[in-house]
Design goal:
The structure holds two protein chains of two kinds. Chain A is mainly alpha-helical. Chain A is 78% helix and 0% strand. By secondary structure, chain B is mainly α. Classes of the chains: A mainly alpha, B mainly alpha. The interface between A and B is large, with 62 and 54 residues.
Chain lengths: 318, 310
């Protein structure tokens, strides 16, 4: 329990440090967000009001203090350009990013689990070697190159088989929604699948050499049942962990994919805000992402301690 | 943080060894290596990979002097079509610049950034890692905290900010990517230092009255370096990709200077008319990253470094 409290305190401290660091960087960004967004035509009075609200003339500490104070009071800031609250802008965009990430996780798991299980079942067989080589190659393709290739093959070469841009929400048109999601999700998944396949295959082969598997075999249980019922669950621990750890990387991946396929999600929101010097948006979004990443990592660390007896033993020995 | 990191290292180690069919109680380190060598047949692959990297490097370094590499910013207009020809080996890009030359010059920036970032991160991250791993205690807690903080910022956001704040040129991109690479390097060096600083030869040196500084330089460092050789190749590959991403977000070196990522970003706009402009440099990045991964793996086998350390 003591360890948990320590971790939570550390987590909170890390979040404060992250946001402060972002504030520090923001204050050093060249250019004035009010002039940049209101344009030269704005009246001096309006400009001054805006500068006062955004905190252009504040030093880092005052700026950061104000921001924390606002956050605590539930005020997440507003866009400099049109005074739209960040939360309102976010309400239209978060769905895009979350859909891409969630779909790509689901898709990668659905694809990688059977491949890994079968590769481990016939370890070192032809299928296993092919999968190993293929995933090694797949790992070397950066996601923006993947996006170019997929776009070229599916959207241009196959005469607009799949639309390559825009986001259609599920409630508007479910079919179009998935059609528009295919390319972005494939791009993101292409980076995850080889990782998951390799991890699960490694753990599966280890599990399959355990005594209780031999025992199950000698009892005459079918191979299929052994693989899916007896071996998969104890082997999937590392995979589940990596799914959690990967969230941070996926957010980054989503940012590129959104930019590439012109999707209006959180990722492109951050980039726009950074280029237009929109302090409030950048602060709130980075804080949001950092909180999610830190929190998921914390959960994973806790999972490790709770679920893996090997670690408990190691800790007891140490 | 430190305990959990170790815990994580331990599980991966156990997982790796078990997977290679080695008896689970006794860690035998040479078996996985033998297994891998037979399994992937890296020997031929290694030479092909090394050959590709030498070729790319020679092209990038010698771009100014090689007679068949044309100036990267010169436009050839309607004389140059998009397909390969005798004059223009890979054709031209959207505004009629020689694609082959742009890829050659692009490699110069991409590879240079990759190398310099690795040097920078090894110098700074290596120092942090070795101090944290060797002294442990408070030093470790504080340094690990700093490292964790940087790792918790969405990397691309950090990258974008630093480049915008400092200005878009090669030095600043190196610094920005370096800030991202330093924490990871520090973690790896720290993990390795932790292992070696508890070995008997270190205790022996201490018993003989060696000072900490001497132990670090003469006992720990020489053992940590081999693991870093393979990491270096891996890192260069990753950094080439990161530079490509920066290009995509419009935050890389200013035009007309090409980088591999920038050629793709520019070519993407006319993917339907001139697909080769985006696809060819994409393949070049793919082959280079693949080669660097293969070289990195071969180095790791050679130095017999455990998977967990990487």
């Amino acid at each position: 329990m003591n360890l948990v409290v320590k971790k939570v305190l550390q987590m909170i401290l890390v979040i404060f440090l992250v946001t402060f660091l972002v504030a520090l960087l923001l204050k050093r960004l060249p250019g004035d967000p009010c002039i940049a967004n209101l344009g030269g035509a704005a009246s001096p009075q309006k400009l001054a009001e805006c500068q006062d609200r955004v905190g252009v003339h504040d030093n880092v500490f005052a700026f950061y203090g104000k921001w924390v104070n606002n956050m605590v009071h539930g005020d997440f800031g507003a866009l400099v350009g049109n005074d739209q609250p960040v939360t309102t802008a976010l309400s239209q965009k978060w769905l895009v990013t979350v859909s891409i990430i969630v779909y790509s996780i689901i898709f990668s798991v659905i694809v990688s689990v059977p491949i890994a299980v079968f590769a481990a079942y016939k370890a070192n067989g032809r299928f296993d070697r092919t999968v190993s080589t293929a995933s090694y190659g797949l790992l070397a393709i950066p996601n923006f190159v993947m996006a170019v290739l997929l776009w070229y093959v599916f959207s241009i070469n196959l005469t607009h088989w799949l639309p390559a841009t825009e986001f259609v929400s599920f409630s508007t048109d479910p079919v179009e929604h998935f059609k528009h999601m295919v390319l972005p999700v494939l791009t993101l998944a292409a980076g995850q699948i080889p990782v998951y396949v390799r991890l699960l295959r490694t753990d599966m082969t280890a599990t399959l050499s355990e005594d209780y598997i031999t025992m199950a075999k000698s009892k005459g249980i079918s191979d299929r049942r052994i693989l899916w019922r007896h071996a998969l669950r104890p082997s999937s621990f590392t995979l589940v962990t990596i799914l959690g750890v990967n969230i941070g990387a996926l957010v980054g991946g989503a940012l590129i994919v959104e930019q590439f396929f012109h999707l209006n999600g959180i990722g492109s929101f951050i980039i726009q805000a950074a280029f237009s010097r929109d302090y409030a948006v950048v602060m709130t979004l980075t804080a949001l992402v950092a909180v999610v990443v830190v929190f998921v990592n914390f959960l994973v660390d806790m999972l490790y301690i709770v679920l893996d007896p090997r670690i408990r033993r190691q800790r007891a020995l140490a | 943080m430190s305990d959990l990191d170790e815990a994580r290292d331990i599980t991966t180690e156990v997982g790796v060894e078990m997977s290679m069919g080695v008896a689970t109680d006794v860690p035998q380190l040479s078996s996985p290596v033998k297994f891998k060598r037979r399994y992937k047949g890296f020997r031929l692959g290694f030479w092909i990979a090394a050959g590709w990297m030498v070729l790319v490097t020679l092209l990038a370094v010698g771009a100014d002097w090689l007679p068949f590499v044309k100036p990267y910013a010169k436009t050839y207009g309607s004389n140059c079509t998009d397909g390969p020809s005798v004059d223009h080996w890979l054709g031209c890009d959207n505004i009629g610049r020689d694609l082959f030359s742009r890829i050659a010059y692009g490699g110069r920036v991409s590879l240079f950034i990759g190398l310099m970032v690795v040097v920078l991160s090894l110098a700074v991250g290596g120092a942090i890692g070795i101090l944290a791993g060797y002294y442990r205690g408070k030093t470790d807690t504080v340094l690990s905290m700093v490292v964790d903080t940087i790792l918790a910022i969405p990397p691309l956001v950090l990258l974008l900010f630093v480049v915008i704040v400092l200005g878009q040129n090669i030095q600043n991109i190196i610094v920005a990517v370096g800030i991202l690479a330093i924490p990871t390097t520090a973690r790896i060096v720290r993990a390795n230092t932790l292992v070696y600083s508890q070995r008997d030869f270190v205790t022996a040196a201490r018993v003989l009255g060696a000072k900490n500084r001497r132990i670090i330089w003469r006992e720990v460092l020489p053992n940590v370096v081999p693991a870093l050789v393979s990491y270096t190749f891996l890192a260069v590959g990753i950094i080439i990709v990161v530079e490509g991403i920066l290009s995509f977000l419009g935050a890389s070196v200013p035009p007309p200077q090409p980088t591999w990522g920038k050629i793709i970003a520019e070519g993407r706009q006319q993917l339907d008319v001139r697909p080769l402009v985006a696809i060819l440099p994409g393949l070049v990045i793919f082959f280079s990253v693949l080669s660097l991964n293969i070289i990195s793996d071969a180095c790791r086998e050679k130095f017999d470094v455990r998977e967990a350390a990487i």
